[in-house]
Design the sequence.
């Protein structure tokens, strides 16, 4: 029987290009593969995706498996899991990395159960154990209050990786590699779901993930009106508005604004947190930011354990003054 | 069509307890339950119960609660009954201790098989202890069911469910044939409060308690023995951050001083 070898990355596609997470996984996977002295491969699944192989090479892959089929246009569990199963059985990677994204969260566990192996979700650190050569998978648990390191004796070792924690390589367009085309061999009658509609909840302005400044509000904002004031400050700073979960649950802001463990992961230069307590689950979404600024009336709030600068006070008084001074400084 | 639903709920340490009360026993690789903070049903599982109640309100049917663990507090795991669920099955035995997603999904799937009649199985999108989000997909794989994860709305009609699945920039509407497993997220909306009538009714419902043998599960597949994942280390990350508190004569002045500080730190 063939041995498991090498590192494989599920390279997600977004809007006809490799998704950012795919480049992050390739960067991380390259390091692991070099450590093992083995190959790094990528799997690209979708419809009309063949041309993306070169991009994967540029970001570090040695080999790219392409599964291109019109039936794979949309992600559906019943379609993608068998395709991934087929590629994994053919390529036999020792390690398989998947993004902790809307797709990866669904794909990785089901695939792991199908392959009778174990997946570790939402890893923020991956390393090869120098002794056993097994993958050390570090993941936050208990909402970020603790971290756990897992290993498994089973191959392939599957891990999903949190967005924005791994660094892509500088793309090198001269890098070349081998393209392997795999037939999807889909039988559409085995797909027990149908995508009826995709709904985008449009939010104005700069996207949260891309913003260099994020101004987030929490339960203490009290209303949708409160968030208007955050938008004003975010506008001045050319940033985006985020939120903890309660403002989303209360419909003060759309759900897509949520930052945190089960929301968006952001890594801006500046994160201004207003009237949110800094729960571990919220901080999971912004802990990569070195410059967290807190405004909270409770000096004991957890956010002050995480922040670089803070003001203890009522946001209704602090925020308008801050915004006015920022306006003055930015125009002067 | 009336709909039979099984809802999987897990008892966990209250995730809303203040982070400062959180303690880890590193040698034992265990979390020390904070004293004086009672456990709760994992919050997304409460959303799953709410989802089941909404289907029952619309269609009629029966809701069976399924919970696995040790030292399950009856007042905690019976909460869904006081919200309106009908029956409860507990997998309660020392053998179920320290499982991972594999052992947990396997045991729950065996229990589902024994319960027998169901159109839908609801789980939370992830449990608030290990934040894994695997058990729902695992149960579905073992039972060969279709699965839709991270749902924010579920409508049942004509032997199918139409599910709104949360995505990064909105949601997608997915139709799935039944029986199916669906994992539920908070976007579905808050769980209802137990009513007095519900609490009285729940008192009268005796849980069925099953051991591994009752569901035909080999002891080697239950709990710690059935793991595929080894926990090597459990620790608390250190907070090296030291917050500089910006003062002022008034809150307004503090706001102005904060702006000046941000400029000084080249953050503006
Ligand atoms: C599994 C799981 C996943 C979760 N995922 C997420 C997630 O992705 N993102 C997320 O955010 N949460 C998440 N949560 C919820 C999380 O546990 C907290 O409940 C939530 O983050 C609290 O939001 P908050 O800080 O806005 O509210 P609170 O904790 O209620 O804090 C409100 C704060 O506002 C302050 N305040 C009130 N009024 C004023 C005022 N006038 N001026 C100044 N300050 C004021 C108060 O002092 C307080 O500190 C998750 C929970 C679980 C269990
Ligand atoms: N011990 C358990 N008892 C009942 N349900 C569980 C248990 N463990 C997990 N689940 C269900 O599976 C979901 C996902 O759990 P997990 O994969 O551990 O994050 C939970 O939200 C529950 O609905």
Sequence:
């Amino acid at each position: 029987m063939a041995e498991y070898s090498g590192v494989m990355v599920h390279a997600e596609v977004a809007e006809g290009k490799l998704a950012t997470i795919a480049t992050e996984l390739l960067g991380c996977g390259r390091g692991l593969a070099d450590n093992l002295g083995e190959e790094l491969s990528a799997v690209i699944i979708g419809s009309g995706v063949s041309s993306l192989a070169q991009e994967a090479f540029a970001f570090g892959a040695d080999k790219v498996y392409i599964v291109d089929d019109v039936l794979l246009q949309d992600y559906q569990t019943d379609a993608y899991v068998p395709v991934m199963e087929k590629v994994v059985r053919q390529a036999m990677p020792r390690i398989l990395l998947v993004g902790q994204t809307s797709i990866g969260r669904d794909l990785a566990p089901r695939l792991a159960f199908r392959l009778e192996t174990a997946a570790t979700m939402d890893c923020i650190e991956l390393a090869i154990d120098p002794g056993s050569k097994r993958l050390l998978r570090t993941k936050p648990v208990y909402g970020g209050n603790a971290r756990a390191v897992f290993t498994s004796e089973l191959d392939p070792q599957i891990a999903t990786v949190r967005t924005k924690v791994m660094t892509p390589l500088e793309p090198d367009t001269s890098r070349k590699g081998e393209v392997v085309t795999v037939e999807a061999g889909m039988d559409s009658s085995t797909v027990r779901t149908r995508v009826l509609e995709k709904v985008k909840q449009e939010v104005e302005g700069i996207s949260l993930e891309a913003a260099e400044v994020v101004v987030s509000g929490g339960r203490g904002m009290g209303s949708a009106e409160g968030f208007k004031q955050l938008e004003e400050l975010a506008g001045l700073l050319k940033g985006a508005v985020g939120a903890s979960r309660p403002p989303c649950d209360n419909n003060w802001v759309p759900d897509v604004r949520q930052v945190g463990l089960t929301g968006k992961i952001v890594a801006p230069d500046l994160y201004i947190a207003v009237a949110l307590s800094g729960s571990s689950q919220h901080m999971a979404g912004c802990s990569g930011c070195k410059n967290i600024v807190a405004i909270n009336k409770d000096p004991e709030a957890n956010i002050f354990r995480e922040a670089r600068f803070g003001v203890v006070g009522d946001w209704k008084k602090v925020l308008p003054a801050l915004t006015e001074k920022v306006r003055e400084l930015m125009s002067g | 069509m009336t709909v039979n639903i099984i809802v999987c709920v897990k008892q966990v340490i209250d995730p809303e307890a203040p982070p400062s009360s959180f303690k880890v026993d590193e040698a034992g690789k265990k979390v020390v339950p904070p004293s004086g903070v009672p456990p709760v049903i994992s919050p997304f599982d409460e959303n799953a119960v709410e989802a089941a109640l909404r289907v029952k309100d619309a269609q009629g049917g029966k809701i069976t609660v399924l919970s696995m663990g040790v030292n399950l507090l009856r007042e905690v795991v019976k909460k869904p009954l006081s919200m309106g669920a009908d029956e409860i099955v507990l997998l309660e035995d020392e053998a179920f201790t320290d499982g991972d997603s594999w052992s947990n999904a396997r045991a729950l799937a065996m229990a589902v098989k024994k319960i027998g009649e169901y159109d839908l199985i609801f789980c939370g999108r992830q449990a608030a202890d290990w934040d894994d989000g695997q058990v729902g997909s695992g149960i579905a794989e073992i039972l060969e069911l279709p699965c839709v994860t991270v749902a924010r709305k579920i409508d049942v009609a004509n032997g199918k469910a139409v599910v709104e699945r949360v995505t990064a920039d909105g949601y997608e509407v997915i139709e799935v044939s039944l029986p199916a497993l669906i994992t539920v997220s908070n976007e579905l909306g808050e769980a209802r409060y137990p009513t007095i009538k519900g609490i009285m009714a729940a008192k009268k419902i005796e849980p069925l308690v099953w051991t591994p043998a009752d569901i035909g599960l080999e002891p080697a597949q239950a709990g710690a023995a059935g793991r595929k994942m080894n926990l090597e280390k459990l620790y608390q990350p250190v907070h090296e951050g030291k917050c500089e508190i910006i003062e002022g004569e008034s809150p307004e002045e503090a706001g102005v001083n904060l702006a000046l500080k941000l400029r000084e730190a080249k953050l503006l």
Summary: Chain A touches chain B through 90 residues (CB under 8 Å). The first helix of chain A runs from residue 20 to 36. Residues B 8-10, 42, 44-45, 48, 66-69, 101, 104, 108, 123-124, 126-127, 130, 132-136 surround adenosine monophosphate (ligand 2) (CB under 6 Å).
